[in-house]
Each structure stands twice: as structure tokens, then as C-alpha cells.
């Protein structure tokens, strides 16, 4: 294929590391300025120069062959690549702030109102200043067991904030639902660690212990936060059909904020991975939501969530199972799990044999 018809792909500078030797030229985000020539070895000085340029969002452009090296090269593992992407977008810093917050709350046995508000403000600022697709890339990745709570708490806070943005919440309500997301599982700090980190399915008795965490969360926060936040931490596992816990609420008895958090909680739980449960791709989870496979969620709110998530994922850059790199061109409304992806070979709908193995960013 002639190079003049090849499509440039967007790559975060944070995914490029010293020692790489790319087979294609590297260009500025607008594709006009040549930054690194094909075959030139990337050095620490090169990366510093790219970052110093201050190009919008710290992205560069290159061709698919180099994308394969960057996203799938043997020189750097998937985990290392993911870490670089999270560092670049500021997710790592946020995660550390959430960890510090949970540690302070646990050690002080109190809600940490002021500290929580500060972290919530940082989360809201990150949502407004970052491409949502790049935040979702950080969310939609398996996490280590030892960082499960802080990552999950941050992810639910981010997803809550996105929903609040899509639903045009007031500034104060955005803050409330983000705080609720940060603290919704804080009660898990009181659950025995051997249950939380069990590398297997839980026994019936252990599941009953886990079901107490919303009550523990409520006990920690109810003296310091308003009723909106308290509803989130106590009722995010309630279901519209009345089969949830801890209070068996149904229908309109469950607050709007708790219903939204339930959706965020389910989504993040499904994209995570534990030793006894495989992670899922976001397209599959959204399809399951449309099909109503997660019983008890508010279907109106779920439709809002899915519609906006599809909009974010359209034009997302994906790595396919065969190593090719493409862009999501269309997500069928009745078959979300099989998006149409454009690679240099042209458009093709994914199927059981040719599917996305990684969502790499937004093109």
C-alpha cells in the first residue's frame, strides 16, 4: 500500500519509551511537523523534547506499523504500557490521592470530610480537562488485587462524574455524586482482607459478610455528609425490583444518585479482573446492559449511560487480536459487542475470531 494513502494514528507520548526504534516517521498531532525519523532510536532526551513541546494533550501521529510496535512491542509489557498511559493522563496521581484518603479515613475512623472534598475536586477537574476516552482507557483495564479498592473507588467516582456531566447536574450535585463514588465502598476497609482478596468465588457466609459493607460505609459517613452522599454509600447495591441489599428498597425508594452509582459500580466491576474472573471488554458490557442482563438497574439511566459511552468509544483506537491497529467507526445499536473497525485493510465488523483485544485510546 502506498504511504500517501496510509492513515496516521494518534499515540500518547506517554506510551513511547526510550529504546524504541519505530519503523515509521513520527509527526506532530496535526501531522505536519516531522518529529522523529523512521529508524531513529528514541532516547530519554527525545521524550523530554516531545513533552517540552507542549503539544495539545501530548499526542503525536504515526502509522499503523509503528502503532503495533508502541502498543504491542515485546520491549515493553502491556502493564508497563498501561502504567505509562495512566501516568501521562494524571490517573496515577489521582489513584494515589484516593489511596491516601482511604488510609486516613481507616486510621482515623472518621469520614475525612475536608480531604474527601479536595480529592473530589481533583476528580471533577480531571473529567473536565481530559478526553473522556483517555480516562476510560485507565478505567477499562484489569487491576492488581492489592489496588482493587482505591482503583475501584476512583473509577466509580469518575463514572459518576461523567454521568452527572451528561445529565447536566448542577455544580453542587456533581460534587455530591463524585464524593459518593469515592466513599461508596469505604466500608470494605472493615471487611477481613482474606475475604476481599480471596482468589476464588466466595462462600455463602462470606457473601453475607461482604453485604454488610454498605452499612459500614454509611456508619462512617452519615455524620459528616448530606443525605445524597449517604444514600449513595448505603443504597448502591439496592435494585429496582427489591432484590438488593442492605434494606431491600425498590423503585422510587432508591435515590437518583444511588441508581447512577449502581450502574457505575456494575460497569467497573465487569471490566476489572480477578484470579477467578476474567475481565470484559467495554463493548461487551454495554451490550449486556442494553439486553438487560444486569437485573435491577434503572433502564432509563442505563440507556443514558450506554448512549454516551458509545459516543466516547466511537473513533477510539483499538488493538485487534491479530495485532493490527484500527479505529472504531461504528457501533451497531443492536450489536454493541461487535463494532465496525477500520484498519489499513479497510472496514470490517468484529466477530468471534477477529475482535478487539485492547482499547488503546481516542483517535
Please outline what is shown here.
The protein is built from 15 helices and 9 strands. With 363 residues, it is α+β, with helices and mostly antiparallel strands.
Question: Can you walk me through this structure?
Answer:
The strands form 3 sheets. Strands 8-7-6-5-9 form a 5-stranded antiparallel sheet. It starts with 8 loop residues before the first strand and ends with a strand. With 363 residues, it is an alpha+beta fold. The chain has 15 helices and 9 strands.
Structural class: alpha+beta
Element-by-element helix/strand order = EEEHEHHHHHHHHHHHHHHEEEEE
- Contiguous low-pLDDT stretches (5 residues minimum) are 1-5
- Give the number of helices: 15
* Cα-atom radius of gyration: 21 Å
Overall spatial form: globular
> For the report, how would you describe the main beta sheet?
5 strands, antiparallel
Termini, distance in Å? 21 Å
> What is the residue-averaged pLDDT?
86
Q: State the helical fraction.
A: 40-55%
Characterize the quaternary organization of these chains.
Answer: single chain
Strand order of the largest sheet: 8-7-6-5-9
**Overall number of strands:** 9
Strand content: 5-15%
Amino acid at each position: 500500500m502506498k504511504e500517501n494513502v496510509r492513515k496516521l494514528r494518534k499515540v500518547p507520548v506517554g506510551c513511547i519509551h526510550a529504546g524504541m526504534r519505530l519503523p515509521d516517521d513520527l509527526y506532530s498531532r496535526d501531522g505536519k511537523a516531522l518529529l522523529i525519523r523512521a529508524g531513529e532510536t528514541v532516547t530519554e532526551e527525545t521524550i523530554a523534547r516531545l513533552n517540552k513541546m507542549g503539544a495539545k494533550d501530548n499526542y503525536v501521529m504515526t502509522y499503523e506499523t509503528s502503532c503495533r510496535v508502541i502498543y504491542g512491542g515485546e520491549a515493553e509489557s502491556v502493564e508497563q504500557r498501561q502504567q505509562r498511559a495512566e501516568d501521562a493522563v494524571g490517573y496515577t496521581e489521582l489513584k494515589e490521592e484516593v489511596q491516601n484518603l482511604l488510609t486516613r479515613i481507616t486510621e482515623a475512623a472518621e469520614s475525612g470530610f475536608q480531604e474527601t472534598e479536595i480529592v473530589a475536586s481533583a476528580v471533577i477537574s480531571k473529567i473536565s480537562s481530559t478526553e473522556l476516552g483517555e480516562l476510560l482507557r485507565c478505567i477499562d483495564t484489569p487491576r492488581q488485587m492489592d489496588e482493587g479498592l482505591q482503583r475501584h473507588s476512583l473509577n466509580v467516582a469518575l463514572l459518576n462524574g461523567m454521568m452527572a456531566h451528561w445529565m447536566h447536574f448542577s455544580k453542587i450535585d456533581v460534587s455530591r455524586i463524585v464524593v459518593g463514588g469515592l466513599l461508596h465502598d469505604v466500608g470494605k476497609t472493615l471487611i477481613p482482607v482474606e475475604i476481599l482478596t480471596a482468589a476464588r468465588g466466595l462462600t455463602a457466609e462470606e457473601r453475607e459478610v461482604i453485604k454488610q459493607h454498605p452499612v459500614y460505609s454509611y456508619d462512617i459517613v452519615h455524620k459528616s455528609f448530606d443525605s445524597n452522599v449517604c444514600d449513595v454509600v448505603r443504597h448502591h447495591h439496592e435494585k429496582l425490583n427489591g432484590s438488593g441489599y442492605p434494606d431491600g428498597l425498590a423503585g422510587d425508594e432508591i435515590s437518583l444518585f444511588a441508581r447512577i452509582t449502581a450502574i457505575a459500580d456494575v460497569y467497573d466491576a465487569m471490566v476489572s479482573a480477578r484470579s477467578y474472573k476474567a475481565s470484559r471488554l467495554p463493548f461487551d458490557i454495554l451490550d449486556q446492559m442494553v439486553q438487560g442482563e444486569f437485573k435491577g438497574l434503572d433502564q432509563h439511566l442505563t440507556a443514558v449511560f450506554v448512549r454516551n459511552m458509545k459516543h466516547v468509544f466511537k473513533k477510539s483506537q483499538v488493538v485487534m487480536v491479530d495485532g493490527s491497529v484500527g479505529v472504531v467507526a461504528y457501533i451497531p445499536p443492536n450489536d454493541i459487542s461487535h463494532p465496525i473497525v477500520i484498519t489499513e485493510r479497510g472496514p470490517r465488523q468484529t466477530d468471534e475470531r477477529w475482535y478487539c483485544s485492547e482499547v488503546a485510546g481516542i483517535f
